[in-house]
Write a structure and sequence with these properties.
This protein is α/β, with parallel strands linked by helices. Helices cover about 40% and strands about 15% of the residues. The protein folds into 3 domains: about 1-180, Rossmann fold (3-Layer(aba) Sandwich); about 205-360, TPP-binding domain (Rossmann fold); about 375-550, Thiamin diphosphate (ThDP)-binding fold, Pyr/PP domains (Rossmann fold, 3-Layer(aba) Sandwich), CATH 3.40.50.970. Strand 7 (about 220-225), helix 8 (about 230-240) and strand 8 (about 245-250) form a beta-alpha-beta unit. Helix 3 runs parallel beside helix 16 (about 425-440). The longest helix has 22 residues, at about 345-365. The chain starts with a helix and ends in a 7-residue tail after the last helix. About 50% of the residues are buried.
Length: about 575
């Protein structure tokens, strides 16, 4: 296993998440004794895998996970699904019993081969380790193949299932074994097999067709879903040349200022405005839009062009007239020089004026709430107050939607979320892993905005984080249950509270105390930012609990939408 671990290190892996177990002893020791890895130990395999997911997101490099045989492997499944759908590279290394024990009822033995199905880019059932002279070549080659499949052509998780025979612990007396050529790897620390990740370039003919379409279209719209924020500058340059407004999700990296709208999702929720401003052409970059209003607007556009990396889908309405599977930034870079920059058009002016009116209307309405807690204002104020260079993990369900509707444009903030499969599981673990990676990579501070159910779903990660070394401020909106269901049709059911609202009545301050985390309670709107700043200064893992009312919050969301509709009611159709 030493050759496997060393070869992964030569390919740039620096982090490995290990969960304790007997059968995985050779793997755990190989990484721990290598000296080049930061080994993160987690009791819970599900938490470990989501932590690895956060590390990989923050570092931009693959991260390995190690676990023992049996149900331990199955606990990786949710994180493997998210990594697959979000194109995050993970190396899943599961220990297994020898092949002759499979299907015999042997303790802690399940069928692990192919357990992740199509949610991994590649999987292999390894051979039993031996001391043959060609063994180093086989193990180093296996590691190189795993990294290659995790990175290209579409990044994602890979699974190596590795059987081990007893004894699992090295002998007390060292045994001299001649492993032959390759045991120390390539000279100079080079990888055994170099891995090349070519850029996903757009088709030249398709670029020319799209350039002609954009040039001929004044009434256009750019929709930016979640994507690598390195694409932001190129897409912004394209939108400015086309003189098209941008409806940008926070996870796109484009919510930084004009022509990106401050209230795009709320504007499109105002039906008279949306119906009167249907674009002739829309170019959608990145992942599928989150908000229903943006999805609806994209579905009825005259001609929709979807630009998404290979291996991903972003057209649930099946409305796209053209789909380009390439790097969005590469497409924007190729497209912009082919355009004649358009002066500020009447179309763009109407959108920017509508955005100004909508933003002013929402601000005035929020001011009328006084100190009442509203979840949309929590998202807005938190995003505005975080220091430049920060990263904010946005939980699925309401937090990401509240940011999409209410976050004001600003530079210097990276927003990420588990939006591949959009689950709430693993939220704390992912945020902790992200925080570790960002601190190591740039010294940036990490924050999280999640709901109470997401916190409770991953409370084990919070408990384990008390072992120290983590810096993360978690803002938890506690509305005693599943707040999003109050905005859906389930709210009308007589069983709503029991089956969907799921009130828990738990004391989050007590949970924080048990986890050794700091805790601050916010009951008034003006208390949020001071509480977050105090938690940041204190360091470590900190919980800022914001108490909210689910039913009242649903009413306030509807009132906010009404305020925007009133603000733009006088605008004529575009």
């Amino acid at each position: 296993m030493a050759q496997l671990a060393d070869e992964l290190h030569r390919h740039g892996l620096r982090h490995v998440c290990v969960s304790p177990g007997s059968r995985s002893t050779p793997l755990a020791l190989a990484f721990a004794r290598h000296g080049g890895f930061e080994v993160h130990v987690h009791l819970d395999e599900r938490s470990a895998a989501f932590y690895a997911l956060g590390l990989a997101r923050g570092s931009g490099a693959p991260v390995a996970t190690v676990c023992t045989s049996g149900t331990a492997v199955a606990n990786w499944f949710p994180a493997a699904v998210e990594a697959s759908m979000a194109c995050v590279p993970l190396i899943l290394l599961s220990a297994d019993r020898p092949p002759e024990l499979r299907g015999t009822g042997a303790n802690q033995t399940i069928d692990q081969v192919g357990i992740f199905g199509r949610f991994v880019r590649w999987s292999a059932d390894g051979e039993l380790p031996d001391a043959g002279r060609d063994a180093p070549r086989r193990w180093r080659s296996l590691a190189a193949r795993a990294v290659a499949h995790a990175l290209a052509p579409v990044p994602g998780p890979v699974h190596l299932n590795l059987p081990f025979e007893e004894p699992l612990v090295p002998a007390a007396v060292a045994v001299a074994v001649d492993l032959g050529p390759g045991s120390d790897g390539r000279p100079g620390g080079r990888p055994w097999r170099a891995v090349s990740v070519p850029p996903h370039l757009p088709d030249g003919e398709a670029v020319e067709r799209l350039a002609a379409l954009v040039t001929a279209t004044e009434r256009g719209l750019v929709v930016a879903g979640g994507m690598d924020d390195t694409a932001a500058d190129a897409i912004l340059g394209f939108a400015r040349s086309a003189a098209w407004p941008i409806v940008a999700e926070p996870t796109s990296g484009l919510r930084t200022g004009p022509p990106a709208l401050a209230a795009g999702a709320l504007l499109l929720e105002a039906e008279p405005f949306a119906a009167g401003h249907v674009p002739d052409v829309a170019v959608q970059f990145g992942a599928t839009p989150t908000s229903r209003s943006v999805l609806a607007a994209v579905a009825r556009v005259g001609r929709l062009v979807v630009v998404t990396p290979p291996g991903t889908e972003a057209d649930p309405n099946r409305a796209a007239a053209m789909t380009l599977r390439c790097d969005p930034s590469r497409l924007a870079e190729a497209l912009t020089p082919r355009l004649t920059p358009r002066v500020r058009s009447a179309w763009l002016s109407r959108w920017m004026e509508a955005d100004r009116l909508a933003t002013s209307g929402v601000s005035a309405w929020l001011g009328g709430l006084g100190q009442e807690i509203f979840e949309g204002r929590v998202a807005r104020d938190l995003a505005a107050a975080l220091p430049d260079g920060s990263v904010l993990f946005a939980g699925s369900s309401m937090p990401i939607r509240d940011l999409d509707s209410f976050m004001a444009p600003r530079p210097g903030l990276r927003v990420v979320g588990n939006r591949g499969a959009s689950g709430i599981d693993g939220s704390v673990s992912t945020a902790l892993g992200l925080a570790t990676a960002m601190r190591e990579r740039s010294g940036a501070r990490a924050f999280a905005l999640i709901g109470d159910l997401a916190l409770l779903h991953d409370a084990g990660a919070l408990m384990w984080a008390r072992r120290g070394g983590h810096d993360l401020v978690v803002v938890v909106v506690n509305n005693d249950g599943g707040g999003i269901f109050s905005l859906l049709q389930q709210a009308e059911l007589p069983e709503h509270e029991v089956l969907f609202g799921t009130p828990h009545g738990l004391d989050l301050a007590g949970l924080a105390t048990a986890a050794g985390a700091g805790h601050r309670l916010v009951r008034r709107s003006a208390e949020l930012v001071p509480a977050v700043r105090a938690a940041t200064e204190q360091g470590g893992v900190q919980l800022v609990e914001v108490r909210a009312d689910r039913r009242r919050n649903a009413d306030l969301h509807r009132a906010a939408a009404s305020a925007v509709a009133r603000a733009v009611a006088g605008l004529t159709a575009g």
